[in-house]
Amino acid sequence: MTDDVLSRAAHAARTQTEPGWIDISATIKQRLRTITRRSRPIRAAADNGATLFITDQVLISALRVAVAELRCELDRVQLIGDGDTCTGAVLEVATLYGLDLHALADQIRTIAYRVFADLLGPIDPPFGTDGIDIVITDLTTDPDHR
Amino acid sequence: MFRYARRMLNDQGDAEEVVQDAFVAAWKALPDFRGDAPLRTWLFTITGRKAVDLVRKKRAMPVEETTLTDLPAPGTDPAGQAVQAGLLDALGAALAELPWLQRAVWLLREVEQMSYAEIASVLNTTPTVVRGQLSRARVGLQHRLEAWR
After folding, report:
1. CB–CB of B27 and A5 under 8 A?
2. Which domains occur in chain A, in start order?
3. ipTM (interface pTM)
4. Contacts of A60 in chain B (CB under 8 A)
5. For B55-83, what is the mean pLDDT?
6. Confidence band (pLDDT; 50, 70, 90) for A109?
7. Is A27 in contact with B141 (Cβ distance < 8 A)?
8. Hey, which residues does A45 pair with through a beta bridge?
9. For chain B, which domains are there?
10. Which of A118, A131, B8, B41 gets the highest tally of CB atoms within 10 A of its CB?
11. Under DSSP, is residue A137 helix (H, G, I), strand (E, B) or coil?
12. What are the φ and ψ backbone dihedral angles of B132, each rounded to 5 degrees?
């Protein structure tokens, strides 16, 4: 049967080791190590009071993980502040249809503030949960595609 | 990704370039990756776009009809490894004759074993279109691999 031939061909294509892949993957890794991503330094305070800087990418990654715990997906983050200071944020999130959005926004605000406090330390100038605005940008019924 | 690119482009060097570019693009865009599609689907989407970019840049899409006499003949021992290699060569030649979308759909379904929804996401189309293209691709490949029955 020709279908058998097609199945056999697909199976062979699936199981065949791609020639040269080992060398190519090494080249790709080498190239990726030379690629940089632009980031913004944010002023933070260590436990001993010393000033340090963390990138906005670290903040956003941590926010993404934290927000995901609330069955939400972080869409965009806008950090507010002059220069290297962060005095608030606007979080755009997508979530599931049918949830109480006001309550959810409060929860996101609380959990996001905890991330800021953990990563930035004592924030100067200080801001509270009211410094974090939540915008719901998308609602979905599919829990796998928030 | 490399396997997909190689079968889409039918060229090892082009596939290497495309996969490199795709990984670099993915790395740069990673902070903006929302995660509303699985990482694998997202990476295949980027790979597909890079492959299209490369084809547009380098050459016209292959459109000529090659005859079945161009296909490598199967060996005398159907169980041998040489036969499998020949079959893969024939598959590559047959795939190269398919329209781009049919080729992509067949590869993503039959080789990468993605669902219709995932394929639709990668190719920015609908599952209904995927079903139609897959059916046409199967007919086209069956015709071209007739000699391997």
Report:
1. no
2. 1-146 (3.30.70.1350)
3. 0.72
4. 31
5. 54
6. very high
7. no
8. A51
9. 1-60 (no CATH), 72-149 (1.10.10.10)
10. B8
11. strand
12. -65, -45
What's the average model confidence in pLDDT over B9-24? 90
Do B130 and B105 form a contact (C-beta atoms < 8 A)? Answer: yes
Per the listing, tokens 């993503």 go with: B108
Q: From the CA of B37, how many Å to the nearest CA of chain A?
A: 7
pLDDT of B80 over the 80 cut: no
Q: Which two tokens stand for residue B89?
A: 């060569």
pLDDT 10s digits, B103-149: 999 999 999 999 999 999 999 999 999 999 999 999 999 888 887 77
- Assign 3-state DSSP to chain A and report helix, strand, coil percentages, each to 5: 45, 25, 30
CA distance linking residue B48 with residue A112, whole number of Å: 36
CA–CA min distance A60, chain B (Å)? 8
Cβ distance B19 to A28 less than 8 Å, yes or no, reads yes
Amino acid at B100: W
B101 near A CB under 8 A: no
**Residues A50-61: pLDDT tens digits?**
899 999 888 988
Q: Is the pLDDT of residue B27 over 90?
A: no
DSSP string covering B72-128: PPP-S-TTSHHHHHHHHHHHHHHHHHS-HHHHHHHIIIIIS---HHHHHHHHTS-HH
Non-local CB neighbours of B64 within 8 Å, separated by 6+ positions: none
